[in-house]
Specification:
With about 375 residues, this protein is an alpha+beta fold. Helix content is about 35%, strand content about 25%. Bound molecules: adenosine monophosphate (AMP) and magnesium ion (MG).
Amino acid sequence: MHFKQFTAIITTALLLAGCGNAAENAGAEQTASMSETVSEQASEPVTESDGAVSQEIFAMDTYMVVKAYGDRAKDAVTAAVTEIQRLDALLSTGSEDSEVSVLNRAGGGSLSTDTETLIERSLQLYEDTDGAFDLSIYPVMELWGFTDDSFAVPDTVELHDTLALVDASKVTLNTEEHTVSYGTDGMKIDLGGIAKGYTSARVSEIFKSYGVESGLLNLGGNVQAIGAKTDGSSWNVAITNTDEDGYLGVLKIEDQAVITSGGYERYFEEDGVRYHHIIDPATGYPADNGVISSSIISSDGMLADGLSTSLYVMGLDDAIAYWQDHSEEFDFVLEDESGDLYITEGIAEAFSSDLNVTIVKKE
Ligand code: AMP
Ligand code: MG
């Protein structure tokens, strides 16, 4: 058990959160380093000096903080933590008993409402992103060893054969009977590219059902704001950087999710080359299309999560074209290989950064 380490890291993260305009983001680096060593844990809810009730939890392979204000904040936080643990148990590919693992062993089966929603949105994203987002990526994740830390660069023939199993167009969802079937033996799904966004959207709903008008969730560097701060001002959210304790910039948000995908979140090195966990379904290799960090800002947390992964895979030009077709749905902050930032015009006023920023316009 590593609860001591868990507590130490929480303290670091909270200090970070209190430091200047680096604001509420706890920083993904701390969370990434924990995933290997800390089993699922939740602390007790605590009341902070400004009246917020907050609770830390380790779930979905990451460190999370749930915070709410208001008369029923404590009950809301407790219900939120219960919901996070329930979704973790349902969706974790690491647990043999999870619904996703049961489906993967059988090549399909009956679906809970949550899993059906996640599969439906994932299949929609597969269509919308021309296959950049593919929920059937799991066999390739396994081959690279990302699922059990048995990291190794695969043999090209084996990779080619395994990639043949990755094809979301073969996954059939029946929304009347609430079932799914995978088209080919050996296919497996992985909702890891979208599950945290779904979780933050669910927690947001729970908060609202408890009358919480102000709150913040930090799910391993992915942030969901409920309303504004209690003084009416916006939340300041730092977007984490690939650097150990740096950040790309600070964004002012209200009632929105900011979800970031980066290769630095999970990777291994072999012969001096870094291999990360966001796979390009077109090649079976870690996506290498010029985007090294992708943050999506949207009132729809699940969409933000799915698109953070998708735009990372697409690369800058395709990501810009995609946004121009869907500019009402989200905004982005993308970092390219030279460390330059590209942000969409919808957040131009809300985002501040010391880096070189290009504002992407609708036309
Ligand atoms: P995220 O941190 O949201 O970008 O999600 C990364 C996770 O999504 C990985 O750990 C995999 O579980 C899964 N994944 C990797 N590549 C893809 C892809 N191209 N499409 C959908 N899910 C993916
Ligand atoms: Mg994602």
